[in-house]
Amino acid sequence: MKQKVLFLCTGNSCRSQMAEGWLKALGGDGYEVYSAGIVAHGKNPRAIAVMQEVGVDISMQESEALNPEILHQVDLLVTVCGNADETCPVVPVSCEKQHWPFDDPAKTTGSEDEIMAEFRRVRDQIRERITRFIRSC
Asked: What is the pLDDT along the chain (137 residues), one digit of tens a residue?
């Protein structure tokens, strides 16, 4: 039976999208993976680009706002930012909640090279955390 996992972020544009992509790519058939935001901001093109650099295509994933009903259908809710953790609706007892905070690369300022370096750093942190999660299951 597949474990159903939902990654939740503020806008479902970067971190939750990358986490969804990584678990789909690394978790194989053992997981049914979703992502959502408190609101939907649309996918960040830089997130798509840095994931494509490592062979993970997230371009077809949707940027969606959280429908609280999905919390009754998932086994694990992972918040990937403080705002999502603080504003997340109450989860049912059937759903485990974990908080994996990651910096928001979309808030990075500087040159394009500096911004992309931050997107890559966060991408790699998310991959490491997903890898540890898979090993622990």
From this structure: 899 999 999 999 999 999 999 999 999 899 999 999 999 999 999 999 999 999 999 999 999 999 989 999 999 999 999 988 888 878 888 899 999 999 999 999 999 999 999 999 999 999 999 999 999 98
Whole-prediction pTM value?
A: 0.95
**Cβ pair 2, 34 in contact under 8 A:** no
Alpha-carbon span 106 to 119, nearest angstrom: 8
- Catalytically annotated residue among 14, 88, 95, 137: 88
Q: Of these residues, 14, 81, 95, 137, which one is catalytic?
A: 81
Give yes or no: 9 in active site. yes
14 is catalytic: no
Active site residue 95: no
**Structural domains of the chain sorted by starting position, each given as residue range(s) with its CATH number in brackets:** 3-136 (3.40.50.2300)
